[in-house]
TrEMBL record:
Short name of any one Pfam family annotated for the protein: Acetyltransf_1
Residue stretches making up the N-acetyltransferase domain: 2-172
Protein name as annotated: GNAT family N-acetyltransferase
Key words of the record: Acyltransferase, Transferase
InterPro entries per the UniProt record, alphabetical: Acyl_CoA_acyltransferase, Bact_Acetyltransf, GNAT_dom
PROSITE patterns the UniProt entry points to: GNAT
CDD domains reported in the protein's UniProt record: NAT_SF
Record carries keyword Acyltransferase: yes
Single GO molecular function: acyltransferase activity, transferring groups other than amino-acyl groups
Cleavable signal peptide: none
């Protein structure tokens, strides 16, 4: 049975390791080891990554767990993506990761439903995200929710620049 809950500070190390595992299994083959290591240290490390971010009241997290093991999560916060003329109340889905054995099991849908509901409850008129240009599975997933591609975004992994696509969902 999959349980969904808000993580605690104590979940930080396990959540960071799950996120790192998901990122590396999906994208690790694309990068030089030094770029991947630099990205993972910043995104998932204890000082600047997920464990530290659990303390940030501007960010909201939701995790999916099976038998006490974290298998997926979503992170929602204020918009930081470079969108022209964006409403200051807009929010951003910063991460939505699900370990590959759980793809197709409804985990991503449940986490996305939570994300949209939480953003609406916070009064956000739009929800933004970015997705790797070649991650077609994720793009189709977001498009099914009504997200529209609104342009290009440079996403840095260490010193490597990737092309991401910016997506917007109107919540009104």
């Amino acid at each position: 049975m999959i349980l969904y809950r808000t993580p605690t500070i104590a979940d930080g190390p396990e959540l960071a390791e799950m996120a790192r595992t998901s990122f590396v299994e999906t994208f690790g083959h694309l990068y030089r080891p030094e770029d991947l290591d630099a990205f993972c240290a910043a995104a998932f490390g204890p000082d600047t990554g997920i464990p530290a971010q659990l303390h940030d009241p501007a960010l909201s997290f939701r995790i999916a767990a099976v038998d006490g093991r974290i298998i997926g999560f979503a992170k929602l916060g204020p918009r930081t993506l470079p969108v022209e003329n964006a409403d200051p109340r807009a929010m951003e889905l910063r991460q939505l990761y699900v370990l590959s054995p759980w793809h197709g099991q409804g985990v991503a849908q449940t986490l996305m439903d939570w994300t949209i509901t939480t953003a609406r409850a916070a009064g956000a008129p739009q929800l933004y995200l970015s997705v790797f240009v070649d991650n077609h599975r994720a793009q189709r997933f977001y498009q099914r929710y009504g997200f529209a591609d609104i342009g290009r975004y440079s996403f840095m992994v260490g010193a490597h620049e990737d092309e991401d696509r910016l997506y917007q969902l109107d919540l009104a």
